[in-house]
Amino acid sequence: LAELLFWPALLLYGEAAVGYFGDVRRPGRAGRAATWGVRLGWLAQTALLAAQAAGDDGFPWGTWASSLSLFVWLVVSAYLIWGCRRPYRVLGLVVMPLAVALLAISRAGGGTGSASVNHYSNLFLVVHVGLVLAAFAGFTLAAALSALYIWQERRLKTSPSTILRRPVPALATLDELALRTVAWSVPLLTLGVAVGLVRLVARGDRLDVLIVATAATWLVWCAYLGLRLLGGWAGRRAAYLALAGFVLVVVVRLALPAAHFA
Amino acid sequence: MIRLVLVGTSHHHAPIELREQVALDREAAAALAARLADGDREAVCLSTCNRTELYVAAEDVEQAEKDAVDGLAALEPEVEPALYRLHDRAAALHLFRVAAGLDSLVPGEGEILGQVRIAHELGTTGPVLDRVFRQALHAGRKVRAETAIGQSPASVSAAAAALAEQVFGSLDGCSILLLGAGKVSEQAARNLRSRGAEISLVANSKTERERIHERLATVDVVIASTSAPGLVLDAAAVAEVLRGRRGRRLVLVDLAVPRDLDPTIGELEGCYLYDIDDLEQIVVETLSLRRREAERAEAIVAAEAEKFHEWHASLDVVPAIASLRARAEEIRESELQKAEALLERLDESQRRAVEAVTAQIVNKLLHVPTVRMKEAAVAADGVLYAETVRHLFGLDEDER
User: Fold this and answer.
1) Which residues in chain B have Cβ-Cβ distances shorter than 8 Å to A169?
2) Which of A152, A161, A234 is closest, CB to CB, to B282?
3) Which among B152, B272, B289 has the least Cβ separation from residue A156?
């Protein structure tokens, strides 16, 4: 069943990614088709995760590859909150190709099959992995909003005559949404890391590279919040900082997880 | 049958000197419509700065047209050669295009929809004009909802406001600093104010201009249009002010020639500078976008006009259909009455079944002729079919 659900999810996300590019060239039908691709793909992936959960006796993301699949689902879920609205469709240009790539990587790592072996208790995984991944999904969306901000600001400065061709949210809106998304995500990451540290101390384990990198990521996003709320940072500078924070998220998600899950 | 007649003139056919002679305020338009609707007729007068049109629904189409022409010629005899006269389908399509803004000077302008609505409210309407105006308003709204024809700015002042919205989102609470008070800058300020912005300072004299730096620290939008020979604001001064703004964005619109604002201000972080060329390019771009969208809008309008035509054409056959059905029902009831002695032996449920079966037979027999007559009405054979049905079923004799 997992196999049957994976392909529709991947194909629909792929269709959405292509559709959003088509929407940039000619706004309208392609954008609507892409949004439906996101919705239906999300449903297929939800069913896939449910099937995995049933097959794995409750928790299907005990490996980094399977947690990547959950991460994709969270990112797409967060995007769906805004992605359905017309001005925000353009965010799909960033989010959906990323979702397709990560879901494909997850499959290559065996993360979309069933019957994976869990090394941890279900409750610990739900709290720790769930919170960390939800925070990372939020950071991904904030980075997408920031990338969109930089692109839109460049258009406003260099080619204002074409600015009204494509509906994109106002700079202030993008900036505010990125801040709000980070403001929700930082507490989630803080809690997720705290639960992991408690577990680490209780088991007498040692710090690994992933934990250190995650702590660095947490610091960068805390700095983002602090600079924005207290330091008067906004706009382009804040957007670049969000992108830097996202690079760390990518490193933590893709480059370093093997050791942590071993 | 009630026919639809349109007599009018617009910016396509008459210069302003002529149009202003036949332009009517609301009261005069309502009075003219009431005068034309004398007797069984219906009439609406649509009068805007670009057009004066009289819509009349009447059985005697020639007389209605003549009265409408006379009504406008009484205002200005020279208008007669500039009048267009349209009937039925063409008149309805014209109204639908007008309501959608497709006949306007700037395609898709939104004001006309409200003007059509007011004309409808002030008119002396009956079934035909009420229907055609309601459907025209629906078509106008549909065009604006389903196309981007009315979404982009069509003037320099609207373009400035649209750019400010691209930066700030809502302009509610945004403050404006006006440097100089030319006509275009006033229009731009008015446009921004209509979207919720407030004017903080109008720096018209040299003394007031000395307060610019002080005000720059707090405003969101600067509109400059002085006649100063050189720059009024340079990049260094703006950069200094920006330090105290804590990342707050600043939109600067330079409408002056020669320019008032240093072009390098646009390179500063958080500053968005637009000159008159930028705004005019947006308007050009917008008009071409509106023209592209107009093609889609024409299709929507044509479909809506077709629906009205079908309804209007069905008026030819509706009386014949109603007579035919009444005749059939009369026969059914009389035959049931004749069989009353036999039906008395049946119980209540059996009697109801007989009633239902006979009604069903009548309905089924009349269904195809009814549909065919409506189809024929749309294809312009409706009157012929209606006459044939009247003759075949002796409906005229019944009426006599």
Assistant:
1) 169
2) A161
3) B272
Strand pairing report for B221-224 and B175-179: parallel
The reply to whether residue A172 touches residue B162, judged by beta carbons under 8 angstroms, is no
Mutate to test the interface with A, among B146, B149, B166, B278 (most CBs of A within 10 A): B166
Query: Which residues of B are part of the catalytic machinery?
Result: 49
Q: For residue B57, list its beta bridge partners.
A: B4, B42
Q: In what order do the strands lie in the sheet with B42-47?
A: B42-47, B51-58, B3-10, B84-87
Cβ neighbours of B281 in A, within 8 Å: 160-161
| Alpha-carbon gap: B151 to the closest alpha carbon of chain A (Å) | 9
Query: Which amino acid, residue A129?
Result: V
From chain A residues 132-161, the ones with a CB under 8 A of any chain B CB are 152, 156-157, 160-161
Tell me the two tokens of residue B295: 């093609």
B129 C-beta neighbours (distance < 10 Å), count: 24
Helices within A84-170 (DSSP H only): 92-108, 122-158
Q: What is the pTM of this model?
A: 0.66
Distance of CA A178 to the CA centre of its chain: 13
Chosen for mutation from A86, A155, A159, A164 (greatest number of chain B CBs closer than 10 Å) is: A164
| Reported ipTM | 0.78
pLDDT tens digits in sequence order for chain B, 400 residues long: 788 999 999 988 988 888 989 999 999 999 999 999 988 899 999 998 889 999 999 988 999 999 999 999 999 999 999 999 999 989 999 999 999 999 987 788 878 899 999 999 999 999 899 999 999 999 999 998 888 887 777 788 888 888 999 999 888 889 988 888 777 778 888 888 888 888 887 777 666 666 787 788 889 999 988 888 888 888 998 998 888 887 889 999 998 888 889 999 999 988 999 998 888 888 888 888 888 888 889 999 999 998 898 888 777 778 788 888 888 998 999 998 888 888 888 888 888 899 899 999 999 998 888 888 777 777 667 677 777 877 887 776 555 4
CB neighbours of residue B277 within 10 Å: 13
Answer yes or no: do A236 and B269 touch at CB < 8 A.
yes
